[in-house]
Amino acid sequence: MSKVVTLNEFILDRQDDFPFATGELSRLLNDIALASKIVNRDVNRAGLVDILGAQGNTNVQGEEQQKLDVIADEAFIKAFENGGEVCGIASEENDDFVAFESEAAMNGKYVVLFDPLDGSSNIDVNVSIGTIFSIYRRKSAIGTKATLEDMLQKGTEQVAAGYVIYGSSTMLVYTTGKGVNGFTLDPSIGEFCLSHPDIKAPETGRLYAINEGNLNRCHPGLKDYCEYVRQDDPSTGRPYSGRYIGSLVADVHRNLIKGGVYVYPSTTNSPEGKLRLIYECNPLAFIIEQAGGLATDGKNRIMEIEPKRLHQRVDYYAGSKQMVEKIHECLRAAE
Ligand SMILES: O=P(O)(O)OC[C@H]1O[C@](O)(COP(=O)(O)O)[C@@H](O)[C@@H]1O
Ligand SMILES: [Mg+2]
Ligand SMILES: [Mg+2]
């Protein structure tokens, strides 16, 4: 039996990768692990403690907030504010960014952008859901209040990013730019333990995740791609299999492990796309690229996009390298 490596031990071991490391990022990653254990507890018992269903409010996206959206948002904000490493946050459930005002927090070096609960439409039906996080060094001066500029940085500036998946097991997967590692929560000891070291996404796969209900309203090239994957050609493993969970984190996680592609295009009724650049697409793009995959808006690298607004949306094509490249080919051919 190989030695069990807890997340905390792994983080401390890896601290040496960063010569100027002072331990703040390590503590912040541990704060994220703690908050996700609290959210995991609530997700697991949601049906017993009346926290399924809608909260009764609508968020800045115009979406009906679920009770767990709000519970998860509060749990992470509390962990970041109390931790002292974070001077401000932006999240899917808050119209504006939040600059913490305590002295300790204003001395924090980092900002965190996060989607507290991803896959909200799947909460009540017991399908995997997640949390997505993205960490940047602040641009504003230490000791001052965080600014919008701190929040609107290109994905290439991320110092760390990751997600938590609340599924048949609960996992935390993250990168600091030196590969991707996955940790499974062992409920018997309450610790995240290394279970998926150095995750590498297969170059290609046979699984595609597209909400085909949007096909008549999006780029014709995507329709051509769906035609392509359905053709009978055993030499290329086609026809592929459709796998659309409807929880971005779960679809991306599957593709990282098994190979595959996830697509959420812009459509005539949401011309900017659905997914949010800074707290959904950028953090997952960092993970996917570190695992050898691609994440684009159909043309450009997601992490090169200059964010303009907190809740900005983008087209999203992400997963195994060869599959994303094939989609690009179809999009170009249809232009
Ligand atoms: O229901 P649709 O239109 O297919 O959208 C599903 C997508 O929307 C999301 O639920 C959006 O994220 P939130 O649940 O965090 O709002 C993704 O997780 C998922 O991939
Ligand atoms: Mg989401
Ligand atoms: Mg969400």
From TrEMBL:
GO terms for biological process: fructose 1,6-bisphosphate metabolic process; fructose 6-phosphate metabolic process; fructose metabolic process; gluconeogenesis; sucrose biosynthetic process. Pfam families: FBPase, FBPase_C. The keyword Cytoplasm applies. Pathway: Carbohydrate biosynthesis; Calvin cycle. Gene3D superfamilies: 3.40.190.80, Fructose-1,6-Bisphosphatase, subunit A, domain 1. GO terms for molecular function: fructose 1,6-bisphosphate 1-phosphatase activity; magnesium ion binding. NCBIfam families: PRK09293.1-1, PRK09293.1-3. This is Fructose-1,6-bisphosphatase class 1. It comes from Lishizhenia tianjinensis. The lineage of its organism: Bacteria, Pseudomonadati, Bacteroidota, Flavobacteriia, Flavobacteriales. The gene is fbp.
